[in-house]
Amino acid sequence: MKKVIGAVVAGTLVAGMASADISFKLQSRVRPSLYTSTETYADEGKKSTLWDFGYSSHNDILGVYAKGENCGADVEIALKNGQSSYTGTEATSDGSTQAIGMDGLYDAWMNWGAFKVSFGRFDSRFINRYNKSSVEGGWADSDTAKYGVSGAVLKGIAGTGNEIGNTFLFDFSNATAIGGTKNPALIFDYTVDADAAKILLKGGFVASNYKDDSEHYAKSESKNLQGAGYVAEIDVTAEPVNLQAIFKMPTQHTLGFGLYADVKAVENLNLAAGFTYGQQSEYDYYKYNANYSVSATKGTITDGGAYATTKSTKAKFTAYAFDLRAFYKVDAALTVGLVGKYSSIKQDGQNDDKAVSALELIGTAQYVASDLLTAQLDLTYAMTGMGVEGLKKYGYDYFGIRPAVKISASKNAAITAGFEFKTALNAGDASDAKTGNVTKTSIAIPVVARVKL
Description:
The protein is mainly beta and 453 residues long. It has helices at residues 2-18, 431-436; strands at 21-30, 33-40, 47-52, 58-68, 71-81, 86-91, 97-112, 115-121, 177-178, 181-182, 185-193, 198-212, 225-238, 241-251, 254-266, 269-280, 292-294, 301-303, 317-329, 334-347, 356-368, 373-386, 397-410, 413-418, 420-424, 439-452.
């Protein structure tokens, strides 16, 4: 009987797979650095490392993608060294341990004609980011290429101790991401295919601590909680222009909207631009009657009252960002591009002249010499401490250069080697920068080996 049942189950699985279009992806990538060197204002000398396998995470991905009649499901599982959502350890040859974890994306969808329902943890983008990089790890494919308010405000080269970090306005054009993190979501969309344009109407719920009143009530009282925020989006395709308008409300005290467009104005020229605006109108997760001390330079608050809590602190603020992209294909081999972003954040109660801002510019030239050899040169210039008097001596502004070469064994296998150099431009009096251990210069020689099948 067991053999009969087993045969029936196996037959059912095979029949189910036969009715679906299934594809697989296997990617293995290791990203060590042959040499790294950093110098901070607090150091008497430089710190350097040879053969640094902790320079960046190793990343192995297994993906399965299935599509059937009016439905589909995708699963990507990532094993990571150095950064992950679920972390454990593995033994090394010298008896020590290192972090290793599992992360991934998953989603499923079904449709009834033009109406579609999607659910899971996945990316949901519409406007092209033009984050084109012909080699691994190119700066044109960095966080600067994500639409929305930058996480680099007050950051400098590698952190200053005052950086604000990613707010909910970072990577804002991605409907299912909050602060750059892809959260479980339930999304509904409907496509209107008119003669002049195609219109996509999208809306749904994204997992977020939307409402948590636990801190405002005694244990004996009722609590009103909500574990998802809202997102709504309108996308328009009318050649040669794509338009996106998006609204997000991740919590009851945060809301933002973004307007983005990409245009193929002339042959071989791609342009994109965007505007993002948002605000947080309440001190999330804190009792309303606590006494607050607001930091002048940092986007956080501290609780000086009698109701201290271990939950995260977030200050009231408004923020906005402008994004601009331009990529031009000079000929079959050479492409040049520019990625720009201006971000500004102002804490509630501060005058406009107290806003902190960052300007990030990345220029790239990418040359495909042959199927075997690709070269790329990236330049970056950033002012991450704009608008704050006195920060000109902190080393928040910097310049960087990154030449890199990719050698391909085939279309799906290659090794990239690069040289990265960044140096602070506004050093001045380094006394304050010593306290924050601000980076003065950084050098790295990263090597990325990737096989993708």
